[in-house]
Design a protein that fits this description.
Helices cover 33% and strands 29% of the residues. The chain is an alpha/beta fold and 590 residues long. A hairpin with an 8-residue loop joins strand 4 (102-104) and strand 5 (113-116). Bound molecules: adenosine-5'-diphosphate, aspartic acid and magnesium ion.
Length: 590
Amino acid sequence: MALIVQKYGGTSVGSAERIQAVARRVVETVKAGNQLVVVVSAMGKTTDGLVKLAHELSSEPSRRELDMLLVTGEQVTIALLSIAIQELGQPAISLTGAQAGIFTEAEHTRARILEIVPDRVERHLKEGKVVVVAGFQGVIATEDREITTLGRGGSDTSAVALAAALKASACEIYTDVPGILTTDPRIVPAAQLLTEITADEMLELASLGAKVLHPRAVEIAKNYGVPLVVRSSWTDEPGTWVMSPVPRSRSLTGLEIARSVDAVEFSTNQAKIALLQVPDRAGIAGQLFGALAREHVDVDLIVQSIHEGNTNDIAFTVNKQASKLAQAVAEAISPVLHDNFVPSHDRVLVAGDIAKVSIVGAGMIGRPGVAAQMFKTLATAGINIQMISTSEIKVSCVIAAADSDRAIASLCQQFEISTSSNEHDRQHPNAPSVRGVALDLDRARLAILQVPDRPGMAAELFGILAANNISLDAIIQSQRTRVIAGVATRDIACTVAQGDAADAKRALEASVAQLGCGAVVVNKSIAKVSIVGAGMISNPGVAAKMFNCLAEAGINIQMISTSEIKISCVVSQSQGVDALKAIHQAFGLG
Ligand code: ADP
Ligand code: ASP
Ligand code: MG
């Protein structure tokens, strides 16, 4: 007899009829010889409605009271679904998160699961009952038994965590689409259903705006090797499997917080090439990376920094063997890109001896302190960071090659990793170069101007954000330094959730003057559009294709940031949907 965890989202339980349909599927699954735990969300848009009510009474409602309010949504559904299942003659019992033994950290509205004590769930399963558990909620393991929620969309995380704790044979996520598609079918109706996706790709997509799965659910599935599938609530189609490698065995205590970093990786023998002061207009990045792709130059990281005045800096890294060719291509195209206005020695900058060091781990999601810790570790070792690239599961820093051994040793020590590995040992031979495209309209750009160019600044600034629990991504440093009062400075930018932007600005403003930095600037009218695919490594044309297709649609790129398996561009908010559509079509995903 197999034990299965099924999760049904808001739309799937949005009315009495739909709850009845779910009950029928549940009973069929039991009749097929399975034990079943069912996790449910609040009905329809109930949670949104409750949040709105709270905001009618206060612009900043207490997080504790919000939790008390929001958990009621799921509690309605568990009782109704149990009643509907019992009505079909199948014994069932509903449990709140606390009753199901889901213990979390003491962090209202965004708690992580620390441990699941599944005794009671297991007892009811043995009694032959279907156990219906309220998703999205847990309890703090102190005497007060405070109730918490896991963050919006967190029912997926409850389901996968229960599956891990119960060692279930699968976790099935039932929703209002047939599975995971190449992009959000509400925006691009031609989006195609995927039969499978790797956990790493899904982690990126989920964190870059594809709300079909909560990123932390994917993280748990990956860490504990839970077979995870996303399917339609309305049909019997097979849906999409999220593929995880066989995990190292892990303790179930500290479930979501046990280990943030799994590996330290490095890539030596690299060179950095920067094009300075290129005009801020559509088409520039496309022309540059198109020219590089035509020469088969394999580009690793790309960053385009925020613009000062009306010019941008674009920097990228390549393997050292390719650096002469890359430099020649960049120098040849520079007069075209620069309209010949910038003196030639100021146009292309080459740093020959650089290395990239990275920390990798699914446990970094939503934990801004981990990246800050990396920057601090490098600062303590006296190492200056030349370029930063972040994704949900990887933070990479470009540093001088001479510093790389020291950097690797300090990072391994800091994160308790016994051996580091060369990232080029990892290959993804069969993965497509672009698996999916995502759009995030909920982010803001945060720029800190005139940051002194010395070790420790990234650690200070991102440490302040981490201390305020503000997650960020796409950290970009300008390539140019500007000398202000005798000190070389750079601008640093990143993106944060719009809801965190005001807090982030406030927190930074309290310290920037003291750190010798300039103003903190927020821009909320941005959109982030991203492509994700494990096969884009060693595929030089992918970035060029993305940039060119935006250029053809007349869309200017404000910021670029890449990691191994994703490329993100920040564009103006009003062009976000068009950017998504154009890119989806350009890669033939429809
Ligand atoms: P549930 O209430 O079942 O948890 P959600 O609304 O949280 O459902 O997630 C499902 C929605 O995710 C879909 O209706 C779809 O609009 C959206 N979505 C965004 N990106 C994707 C994608 N790549 N594949 C499938 N659905 C996506
Ligand atoms: N009801 C919660 C929300 O809307 C949790 C969930 O549905 O996953 O965010
Ligand atoms: Mg959801």
